[in-house]
Amino acid sequence: MQFSPLDVVMADARNNPSEIAREALKRLAERRVAPTPANYQACYFEIARLPNVLPFPEPALRQLAGALCAHGDAQAAQLARLDSAISGRSWQGVQEALLGYIAAGQASSGAASLPHETTLLLLRLCEPLFAAMGKEDRRFSRAADEMLAVLRVSPCEAKRFEQAARRVVDMLPCVVEEEVEIRESLLKLLHMIIENIGDLGIDDAWFKGQIDGLLAAVAPPLTLRHLDEMERRLRDVMEKQAQARLRSLEAQQEMRAMLAAFIERLGSINQSSEAFQARIENSARQIEAVKRIEDLAPLLADVVSATHSMAEETAGSREQLRALQERVLATEAELVQLHRELDNASLLARHDPLTEALNRKGLDEALEREIGAVRRHNTPLSLSMLDIDNFKRLNDQLGHEAGDKALIHLVNLARRCMRPSDTLARYGGEEFVILMPDTTQAQGIEAMTRLQRELTKAFFLADGQKVLITFSAGVAELREGENGHDAVCRADKAMYLAKRAGKNRVVGA
Question: Residue 313 in contact with residue 269, Cβ under 8 Å?
Fold first, then answer.
């Protein structure tokens, strides 16, 4: 077989890498192709008659794999498979792993699930909320149960939860509005019943005290702390009432027994008197029939004996009657003391349990009394509505216990600055009303401004930390023919104007 010189050269070149490289450069020049690495590699493999296979780009693939994130277990498994394929330098394995990663991502996006922590938080929020809504509205109850059932399935599918939650949200405003209306209607009904019962028992001071306490307890704002305190105080009133009534019954029985003993003693005295009289008359007849002086001595002795017996029995009856009288007086004094204690317990129902200022019921009574004095004496009456500034923030930062102490601090300072004729009442929450008789609006504004200055001097201490407490106030002077409620409303509006104007100031209504 004959070989051309070119074939000999090519055969030698295939066996000599340096010759193959030189020949590859010549071909690039002959073909006028840019000497890029890819073009040079193609010419080199062509001369060497080798397949033109690119090198395995492991660093680039590692970088790509590191940039991918796993959303769910399925994608995590595909990324692990990709890592193994890169380590084995398997193009097919890399391709299959990437395709599997994409498919897993598409599947998870079609059925996304809520994070487990979010699901638990939603359950903790919704379960007590829906329980408080009750089961009266069956449609809402079914929708709420379905939503809770979706949340209890792990993992919770976001799409199913969205659908269930949307049904609940659509019905929630109507249900909440109805619950609020029911609550307000029940409170009004309860208030009417309590007032009616109070009117029926108006002559019973003890019972009236309980009624006043119940009316104060059902007056907004309703808080568990306020209700618990009112329950404790009303229970104390009821126990004292039961004690007083039981003691009254016992006293009545004692009175009956003492009266019976008194009547019996009177009867005994009467019988003794009749017997004594009979003995005296008999002795007198015997004395008339006496013929000898020596026969008179026994009769006189009998008369003296009867007289002594009568005197002793009379003295004993007198002592027994005196003892009965003392027992009657002691029993009466005990009942008076029980009544006084019960009246004091009933009066507590008109006071706020935390600050011991008057509550809304006590304020209404005081306002009615002061307005009556205004009408009789034609004197001015001003009232102030004041509200502690930023009280919610104080509660959030220092706790509710510190908030309660801040209210007590304000009340104590206000009492020191007030006149004996002024009246302080807690209107609700951090709002207070001060009634100032014989005071014009200008004088009332001056008094509230003075109280503000004193409050800035007397720092409130919370765990050793000085806290500056301020309040905004509105002052209204009672107008001719105006009722107390309207005057309080005007002072309340002026107080809100003081809030909007920057707080810690006083505005006249």
Answer: yes
pLDDT at 474: 94
The DSSP result for 315-329, as a single string, is: HHHHHHHHHHHHHHH
CA angle centred on 386, ends 383 and 392, rounded to 5°: 160
Which DSSP helix (H) or strand (E) runs through 384?
A: strand 381-388
Angle between helices 484-500 and 360-377 (to 10 degrees): 110
Name the CATH superfamily for 360-508: Reverse transcriptase/Diguanylate cyclase domain (3.30.70.270)
pLDDT greater at residue 265 or residue 125:
125
User: Tens digit of pLDDT for each residue in 3-53?
Assistant: 344 444 444 445 577 888 888 888 888 888 787 877 777 788 788 887 766
**Which among 300, 301, 299, 311 has a CA at the least distance from the CA of 273?**
311
DSSP 493-507: HHHHHHHHTTSS-EE
With 0-12 / 13-18 / 19 or more C-beta atoms within 10 angstroms meaning exposed / middle / buried, residue 35 is exposed
Place of tokens 């409170």: 187
Over range 466-481, report the average pLDDT.
90
What's 219's DSSP letter?
A: S
Cis upstream peptide for 155 (omega within 30°): yes
pTM: 0.40
Q: Omega of the bond prior to 437 within 30 degrees of 0, cis? A: no
Residue 442 CA to chain centroid, in angstroms? 38
Which tokens belong to 1? 């077989």
In the chain, where the domains are located: 5-47, 58-110, 116-197, 242-348, 360-508
User: Tens digits of per-residue pLDDT, 209-256?
Assistant: 556 656 655 565 555 555 555 566 566 666 766 666 676 677 667 766
Scan for tokens 């229970």, then name that residue: 235
Cα–Cα distance for residue pair 292/363, rounded to 1 Å:
94
Q: For position 5, what pLDDT does the model report?
A: 44
